[in-house]
Amino acid sequence: MQLSQMRQVLSARDIHLSKSLGQNFLHDTNVLRKIVAAADLSSTDHVLEIGPGLGPLTELLLANAGNVVAIEMDERLLDYLAERWPQQPKLTLIHADAFVWLKTHRQDWSNWKLVANLPYSVASPLLIELAEANGPPSRMCVTLQHEVVNRLAARPDTDDYGLITLLIQLRYTVANRFRIASDCFFPVPEVESSCITLNRRPSPLLSDADAVTFKRLVKLAFSQRRKKMLKLLKQNWPVDRLLAAFEHAGVHPDQRAEKVSLEQFVSLVLFLSSTP
After folding, report:
1. Cβ neighbours of residue 11 under 8 Å, at least 6 residues apart?
2. What's the burial of 190, exposed, middle or buried (CB within 10 Å: 0-12/13-18/19+)?
3. N- or C-end of the chain: fewer Cβ atoms within 10 A?
4. Which neighbouring-strand residues pair with 25?
5. At 45, phi and psi to the nearest 5?
């Protein structure tokens, strides 16, 4: 779908896009194809798309995947998509707030891939919700704000490294990422954008129960970035156990959370979970 076609459809239906809904539609064909290539789709793949808009990415997903479930919050756009593909057996359209729908429709996504130009205002919680699902998607190939992509791919002891980094990297590794020029979107967004591909780890680093402890620990550790991690964690664990865990994980008692690696956080959780 070219930009001129987008403008024509929106004008004919008197649809005015909403900034609050993050409605910045990706229209550049080359970029759309690059996203689909990064998703590495096959004819047997199940794909979840969130925020299909007018369907330029949906069209390519239908051509390359086995079936597509597209969740769209804007009823006006959903009506257009239903008219565009009136009898497409590979496409299921859902009218819903994707974040609310995912929280209320729990399912195993392990045989699915998420491929989407996500609404930027809710992108981070959506990714965390899927990453923490009972069976997270095998791959997530998504367009996000460039600064969010930097956080997802961040390494320890950098400004971008933080809570979302660890919550995503606990379950996923970064396969690749690339920048997308602002003029590839309509309307042109006020922020820079990138696409990132995340692959689910072949083996979990932690059990489901320990993953709950991991989230509680890292949320507390990053609750006040300028404070030493030990001081923050002792609100929930005895100091003697923490000191033993720090020594086991190779973490200095004076370290702040941003200097502690994912592997060290995992080691801390395993030690704390294994000792009374």
Report:
1. none
2. exposed
3. C
4. 186
5. -75, 140
Q: Tokens 């961040």 appear where? A: 154
Burial class of residue 6, CB neighbours in 10 A (0-12, 13-18, 19+):
middle
Query: What pLDDT band is residue 16 in, cutting at 50, 70 and 90?
Result: confident
260/222 Cα distance (integer angstroms) = 11
DSSP state of 189: P
Give the whole-angstrom CA distance, residue 100 versus residue 105. Answer: 9
Outline where DSSP puts E strands in the chain.
25-26, 46-50, 67-72, 91-95, 112-117, 139-145, 172-180, 185-186, 193-200
- Rounded CA-CA distance 26/14 in Å is 19
How many Cβ atoms from other residues are within 10 Å of residue 234's Cβ?
15
Mean pLDDT (whole number) for 211-216: 97
Angle in degrees, CA 221, 156, 252, rounded to 5 = 60
Report the residue count for the chain: 276
Tens of pLDDT along 135-189?
Answer: 999 999 999 999 999 999 999 999 999 999 999 999 999 999 999 999 999 999 9
Domains (range + CATH), the chain: 3-200 (3.40.50.150), 208-274 (1.10.8.100)
Ranking 3-7, 43-47, 145-149 by mean pLDDT, the lowest is 3-7
pTM over 0.85, yes/no: yes
Q: Which residue is listed with tokens 């404070």?
A: 227
